[in-house]
DUF624 domain-containing protein (Enterococcus casseliflavus ATCC 12755), 209 residues
Amino acid sequence: MKQSNGLYHVSYQVGEWLLHCLKLQFLWFYWVFRYGIFLGIFPATATIIQAFFNSFQKKERPAALKPWFRTVVKKNFRRANQLGAMQAGLLLFLWLELRISSTFIQNSLIHFFLLLLFISALLISLYLLPVYLRYDLPLLHYFKQAVILMVISIPQTIAMILGILVTTIILTFLPILLVIGFVPFFLFPNSWFSFQAIQRSESLLIKET
């Protein structure tokens, strides 16, 4: 009897979480399109990460998700778009440099260096919005903090990449989950492991002081 009650509780929790993800995905799409797609992607994404951060830290979800999401996405609009546009511009620039290098320059050393920079920029992207949500910093300092986290949090970075790969595999075999919440599903491992990395860096800083 206890075992069946336990299974019921677990299945209820999973169902509740999936419903929460469905709501987050709906709100993500709503605000992305409301802000004209490009201007909506970064603030809406940051807001979902914030929702996960709150659940990790406070062990609770907003009682009224829709008004909470509206408030937070508007708060995130300016800074998240600034960070997102700068990071997207950097990635685009490095990608174009890689194409030029492979097509015209054809120097293996230069190509390797550019590839390393591009991969590093991708990894920085995983930490950029979580850092913004955690700290109040001048604009360029968010990039500095994201670089520091990437360097000192190698296990969390690897786990984040593996989490995204596992999510991709699961969604490939269970495409129904794409409808339920592919955006929150991909952001969940990013949110969880970046949160762990941030907490670890803060605890190390406390020990040093």
Notes: DSSP finds seven helices and no strands in the chain. The mean pLDDT is 91. Residues 4 and 208 are 48 Å apart (CA to CA).
